[in-house]
């Protein structure tokens, strides 16, 4: 995006905000209703009576959104009920509808434009269309026709719509809360120029739908925003899997210092399939850096060769068990859910390294399940097993690591281990204060409670030895 260069005007310290950006367009995707305007949740939300899709937290948000949503409502009403359900399940279509509506409203000067809020920035985005699979492009063709039918804008070009669907696929951001739970998707044109690194010096977080870029390391005055690096993906994976994720969605190979370890067998083993040929206890790894669904994997001990399909098949076993466990949980069949997740944990340990992403994913689900049903001792046992894995795979200033410390600290505290609990809560506060600041109620509450505990501890120490 050469036409706009964003430069840092003042030196920024670790934990400070580099910039903020409202989305050009966004939509909620959470399973729980969210206000379409501000992304707030709550029992008082009201559904739009016309389309029965959009929710609002009050009359003010509905009024502020009405210029755009009025046309969105009209577009949705042009569809039969079964197609309306499809649009509801396909957030990319709704995002595209809102994007073209916003473009028209800005071109007609119904709503204003600014240097960082205009459709030219969307047009300047990289599309990677030439790298898209033909099946994906065919899917975008169908989706473009649906959008065209909904909007009935004479100036809407189907080829252009397909191209913008390609842009959305590699530029739209998942909007998440502090626990990394998905809230929606949004298009942030300025944020989209920020490059990726598996060793980022900044982090993108969301206050509602507002994107906030915070520094994880000092940023010098005069630096361009493109020199700031964030992560596009889950960093709790090994190099090969991070490369697969980046190639599959963003169509590039990361060359950051962390990814230079690609050829190191120890790195790959952490997320590799076990070899069970005879008495072999090796792991299937690859030296092929190219992205392919049929990569050749070779056992680092016996030399047996398999394709990555074997690895996907093994993960499919765990995924099916986890899906069943979630289904049992949502059906309030908690004991069956525990049994299913324990089987998934056993399968993951049997198929992969103990520090693998698959094992950690299952143990994370087990921790949440045990916490929900009130078995804090079992939740703590599962949570403790994840701590060394988080510390091995994630940077110190990673919010996932911070949230893990928060969970463990609370569980240790509830189980009477106040010293350990305090230690992990302090570590959580140190991370989350830098990555998210104090605008998040969870961080604010954590810091207040830590301050109270520190004051109480100091008071006890002044009065002599205590048992805490």
UniProtKB/TrEMBL annotation:
The keyword Transcription regulation does not apply. Keywords: Metal-binding, Zinc, Zinc-finger. Residues 35-73 form the MYND-type domain. InterPro entries: H3K4_H4K5_MeTrfase (IPR050869), SET_dom (IPR001214), SET_dom_sf (IPR046341), TPR-like_helical_dom_sf (IPR011990), Znf_MYND (IPR002893). It comes from the Eukaryota. The keyword Cytoplasm does not apply. One of its GO terms (molecular function) is zinc ion binding. Pfam families: SET, zf-MYND. This is Histone-lysine N-methyltransferase ASHR1. It comes from Theobroma cacao (Cacao).
